[in-house]
């Protein structure tokens, strides 16, 4: 045994505490006092303690666990992403450990920390709205745990990323309205911080421009993207304009549901007078009256692709081969329903 | 070292293969040939091989992983259950490993098998529609891994179970229609195999009976519970009756959406002529026109409760204390919207 091969037993004997206590202190378990933890960590560092051979072997053998952190599960898009992740992981013999951050950065941090203790082979993450720094993700990469970002990404880290083409989706939605003969097209958008919202606005503007239509600031209304009520109010504001729009592209389906409510309330015909299109093609889109045209995102496919990419990275990492990070941009598709094309 | 303390090394030397190969064979990894696996298993059995001390310690220390198997994730009820499970597990320092069976028994079996290798501390499961035998769950129990059944339960196993009170939910839905003055109340139901569907029918019949209303077979229509189209057709059949109903209790919201479509198409007023109520209070309920009254299930709470119960069982199991299994029946609540009470 080399002199570096320090065991938990040595630390326990030196400090006069039990081996399980040393183990629990090193694993930062809550039932060990702060002072004890401090002593254990200091001595472990001084003695250059290395986690024992079995733990290392275990890691070398892979855990076949992939950690997944998403902002929310009760969410059409994310639940489909997870479904794609889980089904594909199962096929390839991997287990999925799932965590939801509830849009909290602190919670996301905690998720990464606990996953690490379970020795995940890789992490797929969709960042919380409040995540600015990504040192926790860089830490994983430095410890040979590949990280893939999906949908909610950031430029703060060099990693593989998978997003859907919000720009293209907004473009085809807006162009669809133009092709129907509409030329006063409004856009209901949200706070312009998230990448996705900005891209949808950009796609809307590009479609108007390419079809030689003017962009009017008064036709672009901001509201809470998750709120039907705010979609309703934003539409009432549009209907109060001197020249009311003949088409509305909403950045979310739930906003569009509010828009339809407002338009119907005013006795205005959909789609004859105003055509409405949403984004994401949630279950509600086909249920609302009239059924809502929308842009369908490749959510399930994105999840599937994330597993393919991360398993590839896990293999390359284990073989010490270089990894080239790319951002995969996946196409959306147009779903036409009565709110734009009327009854058949 | 006792003579029973056989190590991987002993097996490896005897068979002339490497230690990692023995380990991988014992873990049934795909990259080891069948013949090698057979030899390793036979010798391990003959030598009475016991997993090594670290692995045992590791198990004694708990993995702090709880396995969860559900039929589908893209599902309002189940995604809420999982949300409750994950948030509560996080609070208590446990990780969730998630698997979806896609209603396949084989897939469910595979989930249990892989979870076991990840040394889960306990399992929360909602059975697939095709699960009849539950030997896989009994096996876990025999190996001191507690199992809790949620929503999709069975009498084939003695374990803690959590369900929502479908009988009571159906009762209050039907009684709500009666209290509104309706006395020709129809029920759209599904295949009567699942426990939940049977209970909803039973609650409907009990409410009629207690209010001295007759149960008419012609007012009870069976259809696919997941289909809007079938809810539509079942309602058309009801509207073809000599005496049409003045209220319809649908066993699912999606059936109710189809029912509303059929009633509106015939120019019949909702709720004046026919009131409609669904079950589950999915997102679509508030989006359909008119907004749909429904029965809300305590999905998130059920998930939360499942974590509470399983952690309790994990503790009792570790302390070798007896466990008394109970079935927890959680109450539903009535959500009143325009489809029964009209516009305010």
Task: Provide structural commentary.
2 copies of one chain form a homodimer. Chain A has 344 residues and is α/β, with parallel strands linked by helices. Chain A folds into 3 domains: 8-58, Orthogonal Bundle (434 Repressor (Amino-terminal Domain)), CATH 1.10.260.40; 63-164 and 299-331, Response regulator (Rossmann fold, 3-Layer(aba) Sandwich); 166-297 and 334-341, Response regulator (Rossmann fold, 3-Layer(aba) Sandwich). Chain A is 44% helix and 15% strand. The first copy, chain A, has 13 helices and 12 strands. Chain A has helices at residues 8-15, 19-26, 34-46, 53-60, 76-91, 105-117, 135-142, 166-179, 195-210, 228-239, 253-265, 299-318, 338-341; strands at 65-70, 95-100, 122-125, 147-150, 160-164, 185-189, 220-222, 247-250, 275-277, 294-296, 327-330, 333-335. A 6-stranded parallel sheet of chain A has the order 2-1-3-4-5-11, with helices on both faces. In chain A, helix 9 links the parallel strand 6 and strand 7. Chains A and B meet through helix 4, helix 5, strand 2 and helix 6 of A and helix 2, helix 5, strand 2 and helix 6 of B.
């Amino acid at each position: 045994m080399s002199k570096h091969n320090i065991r938990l037993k040595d630390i326990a004997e030196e400090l006069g505490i039990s081996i399980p206590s040393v183990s629990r202190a090193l694993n930062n378990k809550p039932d060990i006092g702060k002072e004890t933890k401090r002593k254990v960590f200091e001595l472990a560092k001084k003695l250059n303690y290395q986690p024992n051979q079995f733990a290392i072997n275990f890691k070398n053998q892979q855990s076949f666990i992939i950690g997944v952190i998403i902002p929310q599960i009760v969410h059409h898009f994310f639940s489909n992403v997870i479904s794609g992740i889980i089904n594909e992981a199962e096929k390839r013999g991997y287990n999925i450990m799932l965590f939801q951050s509830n849009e909290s950065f602190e919670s996301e941090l905690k998720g990464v920390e606990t996953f690490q203790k379970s020795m995940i082979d890789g992490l797929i993450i969709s960042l919380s709205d409040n995540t600015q720094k990504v040192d926790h993700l860089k830490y994983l990469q430095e410890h040979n745990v590949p990280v893939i970002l999906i949908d909610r990404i950031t430029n703060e880290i060099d990693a593989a990323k998978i997003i859907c083409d919000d720009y293209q989706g907004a473009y085809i939605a807006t162009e669809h309205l133009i092709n129907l003969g509409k030329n006063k097209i409004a856009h209901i958008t949200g706070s312009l911080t998230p990448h996705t919202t900005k891209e949808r606005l950009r796609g809307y503007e590009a479609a108007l421009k390419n079809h030689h239509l003017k962009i009017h600031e008064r036709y672009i209304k901001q509201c809470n993207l998750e709120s039907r009520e705010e979609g309703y109010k934003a539409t009432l504001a549009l209907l109060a304009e001197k020249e009311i729009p003949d088409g509305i592209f909403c950045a979310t389906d739930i906003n569009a549901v509010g828009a339809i409510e407002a338009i119907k309330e005013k006795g205005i015909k959909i789609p004859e007078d105003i055509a409405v299109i949403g984004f994401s093609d949630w279950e509600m889109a086909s249920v609302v009256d009239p059924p809502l045209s929308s842009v369908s995102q490749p959510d399930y496919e994105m999840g599937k692709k994330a597993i393919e990419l991360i398993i590839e990275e896990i293999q390359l990492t284990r073989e010490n081969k270089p990894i080239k990070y790319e951002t995969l941009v996946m196409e959306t598709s147009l779903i036409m329903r009565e709110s734009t094309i009327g009854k058949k």
